[in-house]
Amino acid sequence: MGLLYGLIAVGLALIFGLMDVTNFAHGEFLMIAMYLSFFLFAFFAIDPLLSAPLVAAALFIFGAVVYLLLVRFAMRAKANAGMVQIFTTFGLAIVMRGLAQYFFTPDYRSIPQSWLGGKTISIGGIFLPEPQLVGALVSIAAFAALYFFIHRTDFGRALEATREDPGAVALVGIDKNRVFAFGWGLGAALVGLAGAIMAVFFYIYPDVGASFALIAYVTVALGGFGSVFGAFAGGIIVGLVEAVTALVLPPSLKSVGIYAVYLLVVFIRPRGLFGSI
Amino acid sequence: MDKNFAARRRRDLIIAAVLAGLAALAPLFVKDVYVQNILILTLMYAALSQSWNILSGYCGQISLGHALYFGIGAYTTELLFTKFGVLPWFGMVGGGVIAALIAMGLGYPFFRLRGHYFVIATIVIAEIGLLLFQNWEWAGAAMGITIPIRGDSWLKFQFLRTKLPYFYFALALCCLAWFVTWWLEDSKWGFWWRAVKDNPEAAESLGVVVFNSKMGAAAVSAFLVAIGGAFYAQFLAYIDPESVMGFQFSLLMALPAVLGGIGTLWGPVLGAAILIPMTELTRSYIGGSGRGVDLIVYGALIVAISLALPRGLVSLFSRAKPKGATR
Questions:
Q1: For residue B133, which of B46, B233, B26, B206 has the smallest C-alpha distance?
Q2: Per the structure, how many domains does chain B have?
Q3: Which superkingdom, per the lineage (chain B) (predicted)?
Q4: CA-CA distance, B245 to B67, in Å (whole number)?
Q5: Residue A126 belongs to what H/E stretch?
């Protein structure tokens, strides 16, 4: 479960953590991805696992378009840039939820039959549900890819440089908007991947994103902004804490443990565990 | 500058008095209960947003967890009223004091945090409060509390036949929050807060006690918001954790100030005056279908205003006002 939070958080880690842009619509990106894989399944009978790359590609385009149409202008605001970003993306989230309600109705949907749904696998006597296991593996792969991407490729360096100093980057011939649009696309594609896998074992409804978004923010902040590894570690810690809390407290209070651990961590390390900003 | 500032402050006070006077006369013309309801909510959100603005606008500590104080105000009042028969007036003040104390208690660790880490911490603490109240059996858990009807009276702050007393109380609360902001703007605190917002290190080096000024802002802000919470509980006669402590509420409190102009005296009032009627009207005219069209319109407007006017709606008036007004 922790790695799933990690998977949702990895896209956010890129947008929120590495580019330092607030995205309050992250949960809604997840929601859209889940609906996409639901409809691909319902109309074309494509298993969510197969359609995951399609969903990720669609979300990539969506993320880049959102950046180019909205976020670009929000970042240009001379005053209150932080609040403008928060409320622009929050407004977007409300619109997306409204659109989902309009087109998909508020009904709960689920994918009844899929390759992975409901199956378990036994590893050394421990039974693990398959979808979660696949989610965990994809999550590790996604983190590894992102880590490599940020630290080993020109694009990754360009991204970090653009956050640090957009003016100087422009001088050496990097187009800030192209870099960030690509970053947003990539972040959205990652959450698309998460959505495609989660569609297998979660109900899909217009507000589904909200319940995961806050945990994703906490995960990223817990690990520390600006650190891919931090978000990964954050995801694992959040999962473990949730599991432990669920043993001690009633299930309805399981998030309290996660929140308490976040507070504890930032009180001791105000920049999260591995944060650099 | 000094002379301008003083003149502007005097003018602000006069404008406020005139507006409050006009608002007080409004019920003479507005008999429709639905419209009265909108007016009451508008005034309440203006008051809440004004209070939020003290900590987040003037002092620059963006809190998205003010629903916690709102909920504490509502719950303190109603728990005292339903369990011990304490009059809501005492509960209201008690709730305010408790909220202010909690705000200061939280301030100790919280104000060390910066930027996103601080914002997320405020969201998280309100969320913890919400979950705790949802699981607190004695306080009604997720079912909430229905406030028993004890008849119309100012003493019990309960009115069944008319909404007017609520209207006047909301107006008074709005005036109070505005006046406190107005008064603090020109006080030592007001200047400290703006210094802390602009550059905490520089402020510290000039002898501003940064930590204490944040604490002061948090306490005043929480106290006023809790009073708003107590009012809301009496007004609705029913509360449950989600409806008084949900994250949505924290955003709704911040929204008028942000749209109107964050860190300005008139921003929250202006923002609420436009936003709340708009919300209510879209909800009742196009929200009836249950298909989320109201959400689409509402969200799109928020996006449009935040993008078009990053300084808020007050910036439209900035020519009429000297620049100090928007600082």
A1: B233
A2: 1
A3: Bacteria
A4: 5
A5: strand A126-129
User: Under a CB-based contact definition with an 8 Å cutoff, are residues B69 and B229 in contact?
Assistant: yes
Q: Which residue has the higher pLDDT, A211 or A115?
A: A211
Chain A hits for B300, Cβ within 8 Å: 91, 95
Q: Which of B113, B123, B312 sits opposite A214 (nearest CB)?
A: B123
Residue A220 CA neighbour count, 13 Å, CB half: 29
Give me the domain span that covers residue B200: 2-247
Task: Please check whether residue B308 lies inside any domain of the structure.
Answer: no
A258 domain residue, yes or no: no
pLDDT, tens only, A88-105: 888 888 888 888 877 777
Residue A163 to residues A14, A29, A170, A277, B277, Cα–Cα distance (Å) = 12, 23, 12, 11, 39
Distance from CA of A226 to the nearest CA of B (A): 12
DSSP structure class, residue B323: G
d(C-alpha A276, C-alpha B283), whole Å: 44
> A267 to chain B: which residues are within 8 Å by CB?
109, 112
Amino acid at the residue A180: F
Q: How many domains does chain A have?
A: 1
Query: How many Å apart are CA A164 and CA B107, to the nearest integer?
Result: 30
Residue A37 lies inside a defined structural domain of this protein: yes
B62 touches chain A (CB under 8 A): yes
Helices A2-12 and A228-248, packing angle to 10 deg: 140
Q: Least CB-CB distance to A91: which of B64, B109, B300? A: B300
B117 and A221 Cβ atoms separated by less than 8 Å: yes
Q: Does B227 touch chain A (CB under 8 A)?
A: no
A257 found inside a domain: no
Range of the domain at A182: 2-105+131-205
B323 is a domain residue: no
Closest by alpha carbon to A93, among B288, B290, B247? B247
- Give domain status of residue B226, yes or no: yes
ipTM score assigned to the predicted complex: 0.78
- Is A260 in contact with B290 (Cβ distance < 8 A)? no
Q: Is residue B26 part of a domain?
A: yes
Report yes or no on A226 lying in a domain. no
pLDDT in tens, A62-78: 888 888 887 777 777 66
Which tens digit of pLDDT belongs to each residue from B274-324? 888 887 777 777 655 556 677 787 788 888 887 877 777 777 776 544 444
